Amino acid sequence: IEVGPEKSEKDQIVTPYKFHWEKTNSNEDFIVTRPGINQTNMVLTGTIDFEDPLQSVFDMNFFADVMNGFCGRLFDTIREKNHLVYSTSFNFHIFNGGTVQYWLYAALDAENIEKARNLMLQELTRPVTDDEAEFVKNKWIGGHQLVLDGKSSLASIAINSIVRGYDYNEIINNYHERIEKSKQNVNSLMSRANFQNSKLVAIIPEK
Fold it and tell me: For a disulfide at 17, which of 4, 27, 87, 171, Cβ 3.0-4.6 Å?
C-alpha cells in the first residue's frame, strides 16, 4: 500500500513516498554451493522500521560503530577471540520512508557457519554498556566533524537530504543532539530489531 507524500509542518519538506508490504518471506536458511571458490561467504540479514527516517541514519550509524572496527564487537569476539572468520562487518541500507535492511557479513570456512551465527546473534543482542556507548558517541562526533570539513561531503549531504526529504541542517548543524539521542536509543533499537529472526544466506564451496 502506498502512503504519501507526507509534509512536515515545521519545515514544509515533502518526504518521499513510503511503501508498506506484508512480509511473507521465509526465515529458513538459504545455503547454496558454488564451484571454483575456496571460502564460504555468509550474511545474516533482516529489516527494521523507523518512525523517524532521519533519526534512523544516526541510530544505524551509531549501532554500526558498536559492531565494526578493530574495537568493535564483531572483530573482537568472532575474529580475535574465536578465530572463526577471515573478515566480518555490519552493514545497512536505508530505504526512503524509514525501512532499513541490515546484514552482517563474514568470510569463513563452511564448518564454522553455525558457531559464527550464534556469536553474531549474541553480540547483536547483548546490551550496550554505558562505556561502549560513550566511546562510540565521542568517536562518531569526531569523525563527523572531519566529514563536515570537506566541501564535497557537505554537497553530498545536501543532495542526499533533498532526495530523501531530510532537513540537512539536522545533519550539518544539529548532529550533536542527534548523536546523543542515538546513544540513548541504542539498546531500545536492539530489542526492537528482533535480530534473532535474521535470515541466514550463505554461499559455500562445492566439494
Answer: 4
- CA dihedral defined by 105, 107, 109, 114, rounded to 10 degrees? -10
Spatial distance between the Cα atoms of 194 and 192, rounded to a whole number of angstroms: 6
Report residue 188 as a C-alpha cell.
531500545
Q: Is residue 197 a contact partner of residue 48, using CB atoms and an 8 Å limit?
A: no
> Which residues, including other chains, have CB under 8 Å from residue 95's CB and lie 6 or more apart?
101
Q: What is the pLDDT of residues 72-91, one digit of tens each?
A: 999 999 999 999 998 999 99
H-run or E-run covering 101: strand 99-108
What distance in Å separates the CA atoms of residue 9 and residue 37, rounded to the nearest whole number? 54
User: Model-level pTM greater than 0.90?
Assistant: no
Q: Are 186 and 62 in contact (CB under 8 A)?
A: yes
DSSP conformation class of 18: E
Among 198, 189, 169, which residue's Cα sits nearest to residue 13? 169
All three cell numbers of 69 = 572496527
Distance CA 3, CA 206 (A): 45
Task: List pLDDT tens digits, range 157-170.
Answer: 999 899 888 899 99
